[in-house]
Design goal:
The complex is a heterodimer. Chain A is an all-alpha fold. Chain A has a domain of about 190 residues. Chain A is about 75% helix and about 0% strand. Chain B folds into two domains: about 140 residues, 3-Layer(aba) Sandwich (Rossmann fold), CATH 3.40.50; about 160 residues, Response regulator (Rossmann fold), CATH 3.40.50. Chain B is globular, with a radius of gyration of 22 Å.
Amino acid sequence: MSETRLLIDFVMSVARISLPLTLAALAGFWSEKSGTFQVGLEGFLLLGALCGATFANLFHSLAPAFAATIIVGAIAGLLFFVFSGLLELDAILVGLVFNLLIAGVAPYVTKLLFGSTASTPFLPPQLHWTVFPYIWLAFIFFGGVFVFNKTGFGVLVRFAGEKPAAIESAGYSVTHVRLACLALCGAIAGTGGFFLSTYLASSYSPMMSAGRGFIALAALIFARWRWTQTFFVAVLFGFFEALEIYLQGLSSPLPVQFFQALPYVATLVILLLNRKPAFKW
Amino acid sequence: MWRVGLWVCSFTTVVLFAVVLVAVPANVVPAQPPIVRVGLILDRGGKNDNSFNSAAYKGAMKAKRELGVYVKYIEATDIMSFESMQRALAKKHFDLIIGIGFSQVDGMTRVAKEFPHTHFAIVDGKVDLPNVKSIMFEEQEGSYLVGALAARSSKTHVVGFIGGMDIPLIRRFEKGYIAGVHKYSKNTRVLTEYIGITGEAWNNPSKAKEIALTLYNEGADVIFVAAGASGTGVFDAAEESDHYAIGVDSDQDWMKPGYIITSLVKRVDTAVYSAIREQKEGKFRGGEEWWGLKNGGIDYARDQYNKKFLDTPTVDYLEQLKRDIISGKIIVPDYYKMKAK
């Protein structure tokens, strides 16, 4: 009885921790597959978290807040593309600046709306989805499998990243494909942030993305930009973090740092075991 | 051509944005600054962290109201900016510059040396210079009290402790808490977890919530959290799974009424106010200043939100412990001194 209970708790824990990671990693997939290297995932997550808590506070309801977060995320993706695509700035620089911009704008927004540079007010407990986040994740995952493998758009995305000249000569616009992918990326990563502040916590607090965007990026690169693998690697990272939390609680004589390092050590070991030249553009 | 247009558009956006950012805070500065000028540099949590920085801000604002001093506060966003903020205030001839949080120690050590005639105060850290007042708290004493209360409130005989970043200061909370738990009951187990080993640990409520849920699942029914802004995640977990939590630094009982048994209160507001008053009255002295149970710098919170947890026998018990600690009958283990041994 107690073992099953423990196992269920652990699986739930892995699911919760992986949720924002998987969404961010799958979001990054669209951007990177279409040829825009995406280091702005951290910023998209934070933006989503900010929007989620802010809109939920303003609307007193989650569904419209969710929709609004998707819209803001998509707009942020478009904005990203204005700089990285239209103005042809280095995508890595744009991403880094984007992260800083969001981190800087967030306190300003919360100050204007809630009179506080730190966190938004708490959401009441009834504003709390418990099942929908996973339905949404499944929708994003299987939807992605379908779109990427079975539709013309999927083919265009592939070519936009690997052979942009080919789709230009076929009469399509690389710019349009990348633009759509960036909007998609912003929207999906935004929902990851939305769950971070409304499902995994009940308010927004500064920098609450806490490096998850970069872990998601690592998962994406680690999985060599393959959809299903990306999903599972992100879950694997979630697994190790849950394991870290579980083992730390067992009051062992080992120092805390040992457990804290576990997810990263595990990542390194797997990387070593899985040593092949990474995907080339 | 359209490319030029785009550049112009983006440039205009940036400029407009900058203008808005600069224009709005400009109204806040008063026209005539009074004689004593106090600069307050808050840690990354910001003045509304409902914890440590909120308390410091409150103390400074009280001083501004009651003593008529000029107070300028700055919120740091990253650890690298402390030193330049301190130097900027010193260059502008502020009389007293107060740094909140141990992260400001290194910067202040350098800046206070450069400006030997400016007064500095640092909370939660020690700078050994004649013009710096190092304000420190006996966190272990309060942790001992809330530890005893946690053990007294626990039905499962398992309680938890969640620390933010793994630093000596938080270890001090932990050791005092464990001693308090064992004072009430030797059989109560304490499960300890830390959120992280970097500064992100202070701002990661989702991970704090996950850790709290794990500890509650492992049998703990009361968790004491000392983790800055991450603490709210533990309160969420307590509410969601119907368990209890203990807050820290400021009185946090109001945040989730009915789920927060009490809070260890660190009167950073009193300490900051008193430093400003000394400056105003010309009695400012450098050196260490300790705040503990005996001078009211450390206490446990009692208000309308946690009445149901603190019945008369419980309060009597805690007050007795408090008297014993003050009189020296109970010696609470101090991590700082444990390390020295």
